[in-house]
Design brief:
Blueprint (H helix, E strand, L loop, with lengths): L6 E4 L7 E5 L30 H12 L3 E4 L21 E2 L2 E2 L8 H25 L8 E8 L2 E2 L2 E2 L4 E4 L7 H9 L6 E3 L11 H7 L5 E7 L6 H19 L20
Parallel strand pairs: 2-3, 2-6, 6-11, 9-10
Antiparallel strand pairs: 1-3, 4-5, 7-8, 9-11
Helix pairs in contact: 1-5, 3-5
């Protein structure tokens, strides 16, 4: 397990003050865990990772010249976008797939996955963001995810969506820019609500006052290199414009809809 890297940092120009995150970039498992008792096909599904996001993050980081952090382990092992006390941190069942390697699970194993994968990933995220900030200038943090086109026989109409809690500084201009061409259906806190206590944006941005947004792209739109290239072409100038806004480099703590922050 020690030879398995839980994260990858893509270096860039930290002075630009913008960082990309990809919590669910990969579907990999450390060799010691085998396949968690799942068939190989499960790791090509959305339950294992955010399809297309690794490629999109790499292309955008390269094009923008900015740093990024990729999660290198499947969320079937442990979900980096969940708080440590979230009951869905290690899933027993996901979209109908029972995960034998996760149930039953001992407290020792639960803690081992936190210590070996979840916590190192979040340390890498915090250290990377910290390199892009100064006491006077907050970094803009953009988290990239993807969602499945169908959920329980419902065809999701959104091409992309922006998820958020109460800090709308980056969210509103991002929504406006995505909707401006008129060719996309853009969700606002759809198909999920962006207020989740303890998740990556809560932990590294809401609690610290860093401007941020979480962008979800529908997986069928970025499932191949052509789709990734098209979305990178669309998003790069939008992200550059956001980063040029001085308001998106100010520290300001907003209250969370999930309740008070921990003391």
């Amino acid at each position: 397990m020690q030879d398995f890297a839980p994260f990858e940092i893509i270096d860039g120009d930290y002075d630009r003050g913008m960082v990309l995150l990809a919590d669910h970039a990969m579907n990999r498992l450390p060799p010691a865990y085998g396949s968690l008792g799942l068939p190989e096909a499960a790791f090509g599904r959305h339950i294992a990772y955010d399809i297309g996001i690794e490629g999109l993050t790499r292309v955008l980081a390269s094009r923008l010249g900015i740093p990024a952090v990729l999660g290198c382990f499947s969320r079937l092992l442990i979900d980096p976008n969940r708080g440590e006390d979230d009951p869905t941190l290690i899933m027993k069942i996901s979209d109908g797939a029972i995960i034998p390697g996760n149930h039953p699970i001992t407290q020792e194993e639960w803690d081992r996955r936190l210590d070996t994968y979840h916590r190192p990933y979040h340390r890498a995220v915090e250290e990377t963001i910290a390199r892009a900030q100064t006491p006077q200038r907050a970094p803009l943090v953009l988290s990239l995810h993807s969602f499945t086109p169908f959920w329980k026989n419902f065809a999701r109409p959104w091409h992309a969506a922006v998820l958020w809690d109460t800090d709308d500084r980056a969210v509103l201009p991002l929504l406006e820019a995505l909707r401006a061409p008129g060719d996309l259906v853009i969700g606002d806190n759809e198909p999920y609500d962006g207020a989740l206590k303890g998740d990556t944006m809560y932990r590294h941005c809401m609690m610290t006052g860093r401007p941020h947004a979480l962008l979800e792209v529908r997986q069928d739109l970025i499932a191949d290199e052509d789709g990734i290239a098209a979305w990178a072409e669309r998003l790069a100038p939008i992200f550059n414009a956001l980063n040029a806004n001085p308001i998106l480099h100010e520290y300001k703590i907003f209250p969370s809809r999930t309740g008070p922050y921990p003391a």
